[in-house]
Design goal:
The chain is of the alpha+beta class. Helices cover 34% and strands 14% of the residues. The protein has a domain of 154 residues: Immunoglobulins (Immunoglobulin-like, Sandwich), CATH 2.60.40.
């Protein structure tokens, strides 16, 4: 008899959870967080990703609420507990994902997500952009760099003094870029590649020597030209002195 009841109880569990959330005033919003569609580059990197801001998602019913971004590993989504407050040890970034399967960050109010969106405004959130607080346990809500490629799933959760009041759906899995280890970069695939590197180095040295020789020649020619002009000007000065003096005065004396 108990075996017959077990499948039905398992089927009723999601419904019971939904009813429990409704009893506590938690509103399910028909919005799924997505990666930004902005033309900006770097929407995903090795430690960050960029989301669209949840504009026109939360209503005036959540005016007094603080909106948080929840970042979790996919395994934590099914049993995520909304009642665990942000800033606690169970939601600290510094323990994610080794000890905590989720953390909460980027808290703000609905005033920072105005609706409608002003024309031309870039409305995105970069997750993982704070490096200064990544290891600071006094900042458990740090928006620190993500520790690996993931995947990760996110949602927005609105909390007020009485607890959670509204939440979005969970995003699809978000996978970050993976940096290639240096050993896998094909810089030396063959002896020909190594020879090309050696030849390039030799040519660079020869070019430097040639350039130094050219500079030395220009300096030598310049100093030689300067010395020749001074030698040429000296006889001119002597010639002028001969021409200007006694001959003129002698002619005048003779006429007198």
């Amino acid at each position: 008899h108990s075996r017959l009841r077990h499948p039905g109880a398992r089927t009723m569990l999601p419904l019971l959870l939904l009813l429990l959330a409704s009893a506590h005033g938690l509103k399910k919003l028909g919005y799924t967080p997505t990666l930004a569609k902005s033309p900006l580059g770097g929407l995903t990197t090795a430690s960050t990703f960029v989301l669209e801001q949840p504009r026109c998602v939360f209503s005036k019913e959540q005016d007094d609420a603080v909106i948080w971004l929840v970042v979790a590993v996919p395994q934590a989504v099914a049993n995520f507990n909304n009642s665990v407050e942000p800033g606690t040890a169970e939601r600290a970034f510094q323990s994610f994902p080794t000890h905590n399967p989720a953390y909460m960050t980027l808290n703000t109010t609905i005033l920072n997500y105005p609706c409608p969106k002003p024309p031309g405004e870039i409305t995105v959130l970069r997750v993982g952009s704070e490096t200064s607080c990544a290891e600071n346990e006094m900042r458990p809500t740090c928006n620190g760099p993500l520790p690996g490629p993931g995947p990760y799933r996110v949602k927005f959760l609105a909390l007020n003094s009485s607890g959670p009041v509204a939440e979005t759906a969970w995003s699809d899995p978000i996978t970050l870029k993976t940096a290639k280890p240096p050993s896998t970069i094909p810089t030396m695939e063959s002896g020909h590649s190594a020879g090309m590197i050696t030849l390039t180095s030799i040519l660079s040295v020869l070019f430097a020597i040639l350039l130094a020789g050219l500079v030395a020649m220009l300096v030598f020619w310049g100093s030689d030209a300067y010395g020749g002009s001074s030698t040429f000007s000296k006889p001119e000065a002597v010639t002028v002195r001969r021409y200007n003096t006694h001959h003129v005065y002698d002619q005048t004396a003779a006429r007198l």
